[in-house]
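Supplementary notes for students who missed Thursday's class. We covered one full example, reproduced here. Read the sequence, then the structure, then the short commentary at the end.
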Amino acid sequence: NSLKRRTRRKSDGRVQSVSIEDVRNEEEQMAVDAFQQVLTSENLLPARHDDYHTLLRFLKARKFDIEKTK
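Structure (token representation):
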């Protein structure tokens, strides 16, 4: 998973704050960037889906085969 949760707990067990560290794999980043460029050039990328994690999840479901995504 590319998101890791870090929590800080108070002595009574309640969560004080939650921060999420965004760790990205370089190969996955390159694949997402390429996919994003293809979709943008063909005007197929709605703004609501234009984020790294959504595109990565979509690509992983298709085993990073851009031809399957069309």
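Commentary. Strands lie at 3-9, 15-22. The chain has three helices and two strands. If anything here is unclear, bring it to office hours.
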